Every structure is written in structure tokens, then in C-alpha cells.
Amino acid sequence: MDIDAWVWWLIGAAGLGIGLVITAMPELGMLAAGAVAAAVVGALGGDAVFQVLVFAVVSVALIAVVRPIAARHSAQRPRLATGIEALKGRQAVVLERVDGSGGRIKLAGEVWSARSLDAELTYDVGREVDVVDIDGATAIVM
Predict the structure, then answer these.
(1) DSSP letter string over 21-67?
(2) At what angle are helices 5-23 and 48-76 packed, to 10 degrees?
(3) Which domains are assigned to the chain?
(4) pLDDT (mean) for 12-27
(5) How far apart are CA 34 and CA 19, in angstroms?
(6) First-to-final CA distance of the chain
(7) pLDDT tens figures, 24-41
(8) What is the pTM of this model?
(9) Among 38, 30, 29, which residue's Cα sits nearest to residue 10?
């Protein structure tokens, strides 16, 4: 049983695609695209040297062009703070007097236990405070 070269290129592209999914390395996807291009050339009757040349050119071109663009894009993307990191730096309103031993605040629409960063300071009801840290389920305020 003789299998055409273009089928081997597709098998290689599928293997590279599986590797891409397993490792999340985008370069494998670019190599898979090169293998698909070589399979097209093989299916159209191109000889083995031309198929390898197309694979190399398409793969290198994709890696040379797409990879720097993707790197720039990921470097420019702002990191979104989530969870407790998103609460740090926000303002809250004191619901029950807050001092070094405890109290209650309203932070992001929720009631939180809180304590003062400086144990000597107290914050009375209605005062706005800044959240500087979260310790477990307690907001540290100043």
C-alpha cells in the first residue's frame, strides 16, 4: 500500500496540532500550517523538494511574522486585577467603628470586617477609608 506524500504531510500537521493543544506552544501551530501548505502542494502534484521548501518557507514566515506580533500584543495587554487584588486601593465606608482590633466597612457593595493599619488610629461610622490590604476575610484600612 503506497500512501501519497500529501497524506503524510496531513498526518504530520495533525501530530503538530495535537502537540499544540497539549503544550500550548503556538510555534507548533505555525509548523502545522506549514505542513498543511506542503500537503496542498503535494496534492497538486509538486515534487518532494518543492513540498519541503514550501513547508520551510511557510513555517519560518509564520514564526518570523506572527510570533513578534503576538509577543508585542501580550506585553501591551493590561493585567486585570481580580479577587482580593482588585479590592486593594479601593475606598470603603465605615459601618461600625474601626480600630486596631476590628470593625465593619462597606467595600464594593459588601460588608467586610476591617481593622486599622495603625493600631492607634480609629475611624468612626460614615468615614471613608482606603483599603491597603486584605488579610483573610479582613480588610486592612487607613
Answers:
(1) HHH--HHHHHHHHHHHHHHHHHHTT--HHHHHHHHHHHHHHHHHHHH
(2) 20
(3) 5-76 (no CATH), 83-141 (2.40.50.140)
(4) 92
(5) 15
(6) 78
(7) 888 999 999 999 999 999
(8) 0.53
(9) 38
